[in-house]
Amino acid sequence: MTASRDQGRRWWMRRWLNRLEMDRAVFYSVSGRAWQFVAGPVTILLIAFYFTPELQGYFYTFASLLALQTFVELGLQVVIINVSSHEWARLSLDDRGHLTGDPRALSRLVSLGRKVAVWYGAASLVFVVGVGVAGVAFFWPKVLPPQEWMLPWLSLVGLTGLLLWTLPFVAVLEGCNQVITVNKYRFTQAIAGNLAVWTCIALGAGLWAAVASAAVKLAWEVYLLQVRYREFFRPFFAPAPDEQLCWRTEIWPLQWTLAVQGVLQYFAFFLFTPITLQYHGAAAAGQMGMTWSVLTALQAGAFAWVHTRTPLFGILISRRDYRELDRVFKRVSLISSGILAFAGISFCAAVIVLNLASHPLAAKLAARLLPPLPTIVFTAAVVLYYIPQCITSYLLAHKRNPTLPVAIIGNPLIGAAVCIFGAKYGPLGAGLGLLTVVAAFIVPALTLIWWRCRREWHRDGDAGYKMVV
Questions:
Q1: Using one digit for the tens of pLDDT, what is the confidence trace for 103-142?
Q2: 455: how many CB neighbours lie within 10 A of its CB?
Q3: How many CA atoms lie within 13 A of 4 on its CB side?
Q4: Over the chain, what HEC string results?
Q5: Angstrom distance (rounded) from CA 278 to CA 259
Q6: In angstroms, rounded to a whole number, what is the distance separating the alpha carbons of residues 431 and 292?
Q7: Which of 2-6, 14-18, 72-76, 314-318 has the highest mean pLDDT?
Q8: In the chain, where are the structural domains located?
Q9: Which end of the chain is more exposed for a tag (fewer CB within 10 A), N or C?
Q10: CA-to-CA distance for 460 and 438, rounded, in angstroms?
Q11: CA–CA dist 447, 178 (Å, integer)
Q12: How many Å from the N-terminal Cα to the C-terminal Cα in the chain?
């Protein structure tokens, strides 16, 4: 009787998870984000107790400046995932982890891997030199003396450059539908990284905590590529493949549009903390950075439902199974949008409670986050922007990018609003500028593009396929 009851509970839970489109890939990805939700308050507490407000500002500004890798990576990671997923439709892994299947598809996949390895090697070198020097120039006249931030900054840039070079190989794995294993490793990586950060903060290591996090992440990436998937990558070191993938016709047309979008997105979404630091001081920048890091973590957790389906989108498109493509996309987008909205509301409620509570610990935490009103504004913008993010993922899976005109107009508008209103009115002004551009222009424009492209691109799809808008 007990066994029957336990089996019933397992069946009910499995059915509930299926309704939420929670497969193993999503489970590990969401588990990583759930861990961040658990670990985040611990990190906030440790930073509040061991960091000065100025040190906190530097800590989060480091992350904003590291995002300058967009200028050398140029959107290639997304291209790699989508291009390799189309080749993976005719490939598989055997029991020993070796690549098998269509020789032409294997040859093209190996060709892709070799080309992007060279690209990222050069990009990593440019990143280390360029961003390292730019960071020194940016921080030099600020509050903290150089001996407190320079060596940690240069070490962090060096490790991040090595991580950048591993990025294309992990992207190939994701495109080849190895998202379950990749997300499982990332989950473990997140736990190890947080433990390293906590230890460094508690020991008074200051900004070296960020360096420890990057070192742990690099170690896990190397283990994933050199140990877990050693056999997978063995053909990439064999003699040159017969069938070469053409960069000019198959990669560059999509890459250059994503490169432009990536550069413009930096000015739209990574200037909040540096602008606040420049015009309102390190303490305010720390509040901005911590709040924005929580919101981006919530957004990334919700996007796991869509991102882990990206290889599946490419496979279904390659097979012209558009009916299944639309079914999966609509379901995971709706589910993850609801989850993000609920998480955003919960975060805003928590910030309000912290500001109303009289306990000294609550007051200390509230002082390290933005006040309730700007937090609500930024949360609304992040939740609303999630719609274009899902749409973009769907369109890019077709190895096309019709969203560039929206990015060319929308991202500079956001950047201008952040610089003008953020400099004058602080985070609240920057948040209102972001929300206005997203609601008035980006969401309606990308929704229209999605509807039009979906109708035109799928005309030659399944027999009996009917567009449902």
A1: 888 888 988 888 888 889 999 999 999 999 988 888 876 6
A2: 11
A3: 1
A4: CHHHHHHHHHHHHHHHHHHCCCCHHHHHHHHHHHHHHHHHHHHHHHHHHHCCHHHHHHHHHHHHHHHHHHHHHCCHHHHHHHHHHHHHCCEEECCCCCEEECHHHHHHHHHHHHHHHHHHHHHHHHHHHHHHHHHHHHHCCCCCCHHHHHHHHHHHHHHHHHHHHHHHHHHHHHHCCCHHHHHHHHHHHHHHHHHHHHHHHHCCCCCHHHHHHHHHHHHHHHHHHHHHCCCCCHHHHCCCCCCCCCHHHHHHHHHHHHHHHHHHHHHHHCCHHHHHHHHHCHHHHHHHHHHHHHHHHHHHHHHHHHHCCHHHHHHHHHCCCHHHHHHHHHHHHHHHHHHHHHHHHHHHHHHHHHHHCCCHHHHHHHHHCCCHHHHHHHHHHHHHHHHHHHHHHHHHCCCCCCCHHHHHHHHHHHHHHHHHHHHHHCHHHHHHHHHHHHHHHHHHHHHHHHHHHHHHHCCCCCCCCCCCC
A5: 27
A6: 11
A7: 314-318
A8: 271-459
A9: N
A10: 33
A11: 30
A12: 48
3-state SS string for 53-122 = HHHHHHHHHHHHHHHHHHHHHCCHHHHHHHHHHHHHCCEEECCCCCEEECHHHHHHHHHHHHHHHHHHHH
- Tell me the pLDDT tens digit for each residue of 145-171: 888 888 999 999 999 999 999 999 999
Q: Please name the residue that has the structure tokens 């998480």.
A: 343
Phi, psi of 101 (to 5 degrees): 130, -155
Q: Cα separation of 335 and 181, whole Å?
A: 23
Q: What is the mean pLDDT of the chain?
A: 84
Looking at residue 323, its amino acid is R
